[in-house]
Amino acid sequence: MSTRQSRKLEHIAYSLKLSDGPGTTGLEDLVLVHNCLPELDLADIDLRTSVAGLAFSCPVYLNALTGGARDVTEINRQLARAARACAIPMAVGSQAAALEDAAVRESFRVVRDEYPEGILLANIGGGATVPEACAAVEMIKADALQIHLNVAQELAMREGDRTFRGYAENIGAIAAQAGVPVLAKEVGFGMAGEQATQLLQLGVAAIDVGGSGGTNFACIETARITDTTPSFLGFWGIPTAVSLIEVVTAVAGKTDVLASGGLRSALDLAKALSLGAKAVGIAAPCLQLLQHRGLEALIAYLTNLKFELRCIMLLTGAASVAELQRKPLIIRGPTEQWLKKRGIDTSCFAHRT
Ligand SMILES: Cc1cc2nc3c(=O)[nH]c(=O)nc-3n(C[C@H](O)[C@H](O)[C@H](O)COP(=O)(O)O)c2cc1C
Prior knowledge:
45% helix
């Protein structure tokens, strides 16, 4: 087994062992305003959304987790079954291993086999070439392509990359030539408004902020080396709520914004959608549920999240994701302080009607 393939298994093992954080997502600083007279029925709540021109029946997607080793084929099969049962889009893990070694391609193809009608996202890194990006898309007949940005993870990884020049040029070339919408995503360290503006100019169809407060790849990589969690980058990154507001403000509606990183409850999802995310991604909890409690438990979690999201939308008086983005939202505490220092006025969220 190659180093890359054994790393995939170690990522799974440590993500099952470690908890979120140590920092938080900042979503605890946000409050949606309760509406005691919503004049809506639960059946009125419409979860549909669209991302990069793709129609999602619900704004939740299963974010990139795995693939690239024979031993993870079964995990991807089960994840795809859960995504299909809940009719949600699914991203596969990085396909770099399968571009190198045809023997592990099945660990990705199984996702398309299990979910033929699904919205599937291919996944490669920022250093990939246009032919590699096209091969990754073709491998799973993907509807879109995620390009993951994980510089902090690589630096925390003993065998990780140390050269990061040329990513912007690659992303621009892939966005122009991949033949499917290209989404740039962080893996849990967040994005600042400045980089969102750059990505917008590079032509990406959507940006997933991938903020901190959830899965922490600095801690995972450090644990792989020392089997202890403190990492010099443990508190590095931009919390998901902060990152989302920075990015939504920077792109000003010119591209779709997605939220991920530590989103766990329906209330987290509702807050992220309210801030302007068109959809929200969840990764580690899905893997943990699948591995610890099985496929039915994962399906029940996702099904329940959709029900609870509907309830919370109703309690704000919002019948759709677009309406939720016009409902008042209070932003306070460290999240507000950060944004104020960055020149972003959060009071406009509180005054929405
Ligand atoms: C075990 C594991 C493997 C992952 N592998 C990938 C990957 O190959 N490519 C990628 O873009 N993101 C990968 N991620 C990152 C997730 O897609 C997501 O961005 C991150 O975990 C934050 O979301 P969460 O807090 O809901 O887990 C992985 C996450 C986990 C837990």
